[in-house]
Amino acid sequence: MKANQFLILALSALIGCSVFSGNDNPSKVNIRLSNVSPYTYQDIRVSTTGDDVNFGDLRSSQFTDYSVFETAYRYAFVELQINDSTYTLQPIDYVGETPLKSGRYTYQIDADDSEDRFSRLSLTLIED
Asked: What is the pLDDT of residues 76-101, one digit of tens each?
């Protein structure tokens, strides 16, 4: 009897656990953002191939939840605000790039001390 109860408990725990949760979809590309700068980012928008996703605000050293993208690459269009000024990462195109495989990724976004709209931000892809 105790063995059956243990088996039922163990199976329940396994079924309840999942690598993917919330907005994740294991058959798609799941991307979250990480703010590795000392600044708070406001009104973050990310687009990989025209599918504009609003991630909202993100404080320093924090992560967003994952969002599902149909197609994404190792870099993306990113626009955000720091202290009421807008900054943009603008890819020219994705020619020659290979789309990311289904899974979880983090776009790690950093900002330097520059005030230049198009060169202040940098993005690093992390495979989770």
From this structure: 999 999 999 999 999 998 899 999 99
